[in-house]
Design brief:
Length: 456
């Protein structure tokens, strides 16, 4: 039984049922009619850039306001660390039916299926490969409990409570923590069963997962969105949006302003939760309540380069019972040395390691020494790189997760206001694809479609 990087949840259902490119509806709209409409996009991540491309394709004037000095948002490569681009944010292409998969395929961008890799699991204290784990009854029971989440219809409770109710063995709870909580960017004690089950059943992106061969996601997205044709104003952190008049006025911390007819807000949900942007008039109470209910947590990637590989050449993921729930090794077919191991940590453990600063690497090496023995990791470490997304001023977390009693909060969040202020970004995805590249792209397309509809 092969288990992919996104493992049970993403395959059985954390990022297309809707259209992929500019729909035929778009093509019926006169570009001349749109040319006097100036649309401002707040945020230069994938949702913002994809929205900008679609708007430009339909004749609109478009300006992207990006708070930082670079575009891409939570898509960011580390280009000089290894002989292939190492992803500090989004990494896996989730699903063969997704908009992102379709776009890269049509651009002849090379990619490959992650099924070429093998995954390893610490089961009751022992590291096992897939065949060994498959012969472990308690491991198989753990799989079954996780897979049954999509069938849950009871009263809302946390995933942690659900696992407890199912008497999951203590020596295997970390596997569920890795495959459910950590994979969703948080911990099992914060995820709501009903909203999680709904997202699994809504998933329409497909079951296969992919990696790019020899280029970064950022370079692929720049090609897809025709980045050179998009007007982007960098270092413009919007802190006030005034939509009280006929159009919208966007202000930044320096008092600068940009005006437009309409605006699409694509910032991470963390920015809205922390009230980093003020609105005039204030957001409707229903929308503010929805913002409060949608979750986002700390997330880190710590990239480790070793003098030589001490894990299997074809290793994909290593599910650990230590401080790091999931290690990944994606160098196979892309790297000569294949000596990079990535630690992905979300939620409480990410907060703990974040507080350690640069000492976090030593904590992780202790974890690897315990798993592989003989101080192997400490003796072979070459260098490391820490990407702490919570400490990024204009991001402040990894990606949204389904909370307890979330209900229809994402539907409410994505609703436009007064045909002037529109909302996009992965947290506004209502198709079960939140927390993914293609989920963010879908929301950008939907916002553009709504703008065109409102102008028709």
């Amino acid at each position: 039984m092969k288990i992919s990087r996104k493992l049970f949840l993403r395959k059985s259902s954390h990022l297309l049922a809707s259209g992929v490119f500019v729909s035929p509806f778009f093509n019926l709209v006169s570009q001349n009619k749109n040319s006097d409409q100036k649309i401002i996009i707040i945020g230069g991540g994938i949702a913002g850039l994809y929205s900008a491309r679609l708007l430009r394709d339909n004749g609109f004037q478009v300006t992207v306001l990006e708070a930082s000095s670079t575009h891409g948002g939570r898509i960011r490569p580390l280009l000089t660390f290894s002989d292939y681009p190492v992803e500090l944010g989004a990494e896996v292409i989730l699903g063969e039916k997704s908009v992102y998969h379709r776009e890269i395929r049509d651009k002849n961008i090379k990619f490959f299926n992650t099924s070429i890799s093998e995954n390893y699991f610490v089961c009751n204290g022992f590291l096992k490969d897939e065949s060994e784990a498959d012969s472990d009854d308690k491991f198989n029971r753990t799989q079954k409990i996780i897979q049954d989440i999509k069938f849950y219809k009871g009263h809302d409770l946390t995933v942690e409570a659900y696992l407890t109710n199912n008497n999951l063995d203590e020596g295997y709870k970390h596997i569920a923590e890795a495959l459910v909580g950590n994979d969703r960017g948080t911990n099992n004690n914060k995820i709501g069963m009903r909203s999680l089950a709904k997202s699994l059943n809504d998933w329409k992106a497909g079951k296969n997962n992919y990696l790019l061969f020899n280029r970064s996601h950022l370079s692929a997205i720049e090609e897809i969105t025709k980045i050179k044709d998009i007007k982007i104003i960098y270092d413009f952190p919007v802190n006030k949006i005034d939509y009280s008049g006929r159009g919208v006025i966007l202000f930044d911390k320096k008092g600068r302003s940009v005006e437009g007819n309409k605006a699409i807000l694509t910032v991470p949900i963390s920015i809205l939760k922390n009230n980093d942007i003020q609105f005039n008039p204030s957001l409707p109470l229903e929308k503010q309540s929805a913002i409060d209910k949608i979750g986002i947590d700390s997330g880190m990637k710590i990239i480790l380069k070793f003098n030589k590989r001490f894990w299997g050449e074809s290793s994909g993921s290593i599910i650990s019972d230590g401080i790091v729930p999931t290690y990944t090794s994606y160098g196979k077919s892309r790297s000569v040395n294949n000596n990079i191991l990535t630690a992905y940590i979300a939620g409480e453990n990410a907060n703990y390691l974040s507080d350690l600063g640069n000492k976090a690497t030593q904590e992780i090496l202790k974890d690897l020494n315990r798993i592989f023995g003989n101080s192997t990791a400490s003796n072979l470490i070459n260098e490391s790189f820490i990407m702490d997304w919570k400490k990024e001023q204009y991001i402040q977390g990894c990606y949204s997760y389904p909370t307890l009693n979330e209900n229809n909060s994402r539907d409410i969040l994505k609703k436009s206001i007064k045909e002037k202020l529109y909302f996009a970004g992965e947290a506004t995805n209502v198709n079960g694809h939140f927390g993914s590249i293609h989920g963010a792209m879908e929301t950008g397309k939907e916002a553009v479609s709504e703008i065109i509809k409102d102008l028709s």
